[in-house]
Amino acid sequence: MGFQCSNCGKKLEGFLTDREQRKVWGMGILYVVGFPILTLMVVVGALKASPPGEDNPNCPAEPNMPWFLVTGGGGIAFLLLVRIVVNKVMRCVKNNQQCCDDVAGCFCEFGCNLIYDIMVMVMIVMWMITVTWWVFRHMIGPDRLHSILGKEGLDTFRASLGDNDTIHHVQFTDPQSSNYCDHLLYMVAFVLLSLGWIVLIIALFVFIADKIFNKLVCCRLCSNITHKDTSEDDEEQIRLHSNSNEMNISSAI
Questions:
Q1: DSSP helix/strand/coil, 47
Q2: CB 135 within 8 A of CB 187
Q3: Integer Cα distance of 226 and 219 in angstroms
Q4: Per-residue DSSP letters for 170-238?
Q5: Four-residue CA torsion sign, 34, 39, 40, 44
């Protein structure tokens, strides 16, 4: 029991002091939690979907809601898988490249990952804004939207999204009504979008804090390489100094 507690203490200490270990654990938790949620989106959407362009008896208020879940879950899962591939490829290129030094390889890996992360974040934000409006507007209702945004502001915003549909006040009890939507379908979309915004804000904060301030502003991007090169140079100087002393002793003898 004491040995197990000691191992747990060492792992916790390593997690708190080792940035690379925190990064691995953080990415692992993200993918372990993220992929089941994305799978849930795709499964629920596929079960409740109707062919595009046809009426959906599961949600007359928003017939395309199942397809929002299918495209969002499948698209984000695909982008995360591509992110894993990009990271592996760039790390392999950095470790095996011959034309540049380690610092150049480090910046190349960081730059490619940074560009991809920015593109993915922009696409996810655009998808989130559009789908959030299409889902949340039926929960808020047309009267409250008019009171919040005003008629002119609401019409302008809807025109920018190409929204010509009727805004309903959604209900879950009368399937024959035009404002009906399946409770499971709607709540999965509503809850996951709400959680998605929280995760997105946290991810944006971590992205800015880690990649912008820590690595660029604070110049810690290639600090490990610099420390490694410095230690290697010191060892080489000590070795040369030792060899020189041995030669001087031999000459004196």
A1: helix
A2: no
A3: 11
A4: -BSS-TTSTTB--HHHHHHHHHHHHHHHHHHHHHHHHHIIIIIIIIIIS--TTHHHHHHHHHHHHHHHH
A5: positive
Alpha-carbon distance of 44 to 46, in angstroms, equals 6
Q: For residues 92, 35, 123 and 187, what is the CA-based torsion angle, rounded to 10 degrees?
A: -170
Tokens of 129: 């804004």
pLDDT tens track for 165-182: 888 889 999 999 989 999
Q: Is 61 exposed, middle or buried (0-12, 13-18, 19+ CB in 10 A)?
A: buried
Q: Is-contact 77 127, C-beta < 8 A?
A: no
Paired tokens of 2:
């004491």
Please tell me the total number of residues recorded for the chain in this structure: 253
Say what angle helices 19-48 and 183-207 make with each other, to 10 degrees: 160
Q: Which residues contact 116 (CB under 8 A, 6 or more apart)?
A: 82, 83, 86
Q: What is the pLDDT of residues 100-138, one digit of tens each?
A: 555 566 666 777 777 888 888 899 899 998 899 889 998
d(CA 210, CA 35): 23
Q: Which of 216, 236, 249 is nearest to 113 (CA)?
A: 216
* Residue 26, pLDDT above cutoff 60: no
The kind and range of the H/E element at 61 are none
